[in-house]
Amino acid sequence: MSDTLSATRAVDRLFQPDGGFFLIAGPCVVESDELNLRIGEALARLSDDLKLPIIYKASFDKANRSSPGSPRGPGVHEGLRKLQRVQEATGLPLITDVHLPEHCAAAAEIVDVLQIPAFLCRQTDLLVAAGATGKPVNVKKGQWMAPHEMRGAVAKVRGAGSPAVATTERGTFFGYGNLVVDMRSFALMREACDAPAIFDGTHSVQRPGEGGGISGGEPRFIPSLVRAAVVAGADALFLETHPEPAKGLSDTTNMLPLDRLRPLVEEVLALRAAMGMEAPRV
Asked: Phi and psi for 179 in degrees, rounded to 5?
């Protein structure tokens, strides 16, 4: 495991105010060991090459799929075992979604960060259980919520025992089948929550329910939204990525192709440098 990747394991620092720029990336859902490792190894190389802290993301259960027939993932026990294999092979820290309070303790034994899905960001029992693990927690903003309304979610996590909390903007509903990103959101959430404000550039291009019972998406807009969010002051990025998004088990219409991740991240870092923003801390 490289020195750069070893340094990224201090994720508590990243989830504090002014913790430094970083990237959360990976497939939507835990897939085969071969696929998981292929993505993980590409992310580890990217982290080393660009001196950028990267946290590997994949969900062991997609409990909020639109269609009852959609794959949900391998489940908590097998999913966590698969995630652990990625960590052992790459040294990358891990983040995964939790949907039920009873999943939090088990997930915290393996992963470095727990993530609260946007639909569940007001579920008090879940937020408290995640905070009680003491692990960093990323709370995704509900699609119906204003940025300042995330203050309560963050307070629940901190009150339960986790001081390291971040919030993530992933778009707000605008009519039917559309999400919009308010670029003021990063400053507003940061001020309201005293926490890093992350931008989810892949879920923000979703078109919920537009894909014949599943969510559609417009991934061609990912780069422009990411660039805008970075210029607007996003503290970190969240990007789901896959070698062949159309063959993925979830979010096939809005994941970023893996071969397009590096050029986009390089552009982001160049933008930050041109604006005089602090370099990533490794």
From this structure: -120, 145
Residue showing tokens 């990976």: 26
C-alpha–C-alpha distance, residues 137 and 196, integer Å: 11
Query: How many structural domains compose the chain?
Result: 1
CA–CA separation, 151 vs 74, rounded Å?
33
Domain-located, residue 252: yes
Q: Phi and psi for 186 in degrees, rounded to 5?
A: -65, -45
Q: Which CATH number is 231's domain given?
A: 3.20.20.70
Is residue 164 within 8 Å of residue 193, measured between CB atoms?
no
Residue 281 resides in a domain: no
| CB contact at 8 A, 8 and 224 | no
> Residues of 236-252 as b/e, b for ≥16 C-beta within 10 angstroms?
bbbbbbbeebeebbbbb
Backbone angles phi, psi at 117, to 5 degrees: -60, 155
Q: Are 80 and 110 in contact (CB under 8 A)?
A: yes
Which residue range is the domain that position 258 belongs to?
A: 1-275
Q: Kindly state whether residue 222 falls inside one of the protein's structural domains.
A: yes
Q: Is the pLDDT of residue 8 over 80?
A: no
Give the torsion through C-alpha atoms of 273, 201, 134, 52, to 10 deg. -30
pLDDT value at 121 more than 80: yes
Does a structural domain hold residue 145?
Answer: yes
Quick check: helix, strand or coil at residue 51? coil
| pLDDT over threshold 50, residue 217 | yes
pTM over 0.85: yes
